[in-house]
Amino acid sequence: MARERLVTPKPTTPEDENLSWALRPRKLSDYIGQGKLVEKLKLSITAAKKRKESLEHALFHGPAGLGKTTLAHIIANEMGTKLVTTTGPSLTKPGDLMGILTNLKTGDVLFIDEVHRMNAAVEEFLYPAIEDFAVDFLVDSGPHSRLIKFKLEKFTLVGATTRAGLLSAPLRDRFGMTFHLDFYPPGELANIVLRSSKLLNVAIDSAGAMEIAKRSRGTPRIANRLLRRVRDYCEVKADGDINQTLAVEALKLEGVDEIGLDDMDKAYLKIIIKNYVGGPVGIEAIAATLNEESDTLQDVVEPYLLKIGFLRRTRKGRMVSNIGYQHLGYALPERRQQDLF
Ligand code: ADE
Fold it and tell me: Which atom of ligand 1 is nearest to 34's Cα?
């Protein structure tokens, strides 16, 4: 029998989806965190606007839920242009891009999410489009086929990827600006929770906001999702106002522990500990045991476990560290007692 999937990387219900959009900042001045990135982006946007030019192509890379899509929307909004969104895997052939590219006006933003998942033909078709703002398109086939050159307007490509390492060098080199997004510290996440609470019209104290922040795995998308779950809990179990005690109760019910690990994180670590004596074990074996895609595990589960040092990636496979064992309350296997982890 297929087991229920535990990972919920993006909002799952239409209501959550709408709320998730409503909470996103639309201007750089409303954006909390990623200070250096925001400063550099602001400078480039201001300079481009001053010169009345379109912004150079920009690449955002970093773990899921940290704001890559939000920043693409903000760029178009700040430039006063249109945003067109697509994803790498949905572009199956050059023709899929042709219609999009020829409709872009000067300064418009083409956002390609999961840009590392474009196929080679689409990627090669994109090169002259982003370098020379022109594309060669083959019309007809056989003896009647002709290459037609289309001039494009000077648009801005914004690419987003959770795996910069999988991007081909020629594509990576064609972005004039590359920005890395890192996990947010709890103080910044608490400020995001306070801002979102205001937008949702919910009263929350600073200890309540910090409790949600500390359990959000450094990720604004998770912070906003947990805020909505805590809000539900406080409306039903109390008078609707959020404080630390109620946040702790609500998040316990959600299966989120004191440091933000959820059922999926724990299931992932437990598989390695119980089935593979702590590792090393390959990602495909873990994915098969958990009935999850290995890409999902690599994009959604592993980055934070690596960040907090619960997980190690070695040449031989994934290993749970000593502090990972400790947090889950398991004794170290005997052969590991001596190791420095
Ligand atoms: N909501 C989600 N991410 C945010 C951020 N970085 N700043 C403000 N609000 C947000």
Answer: 6
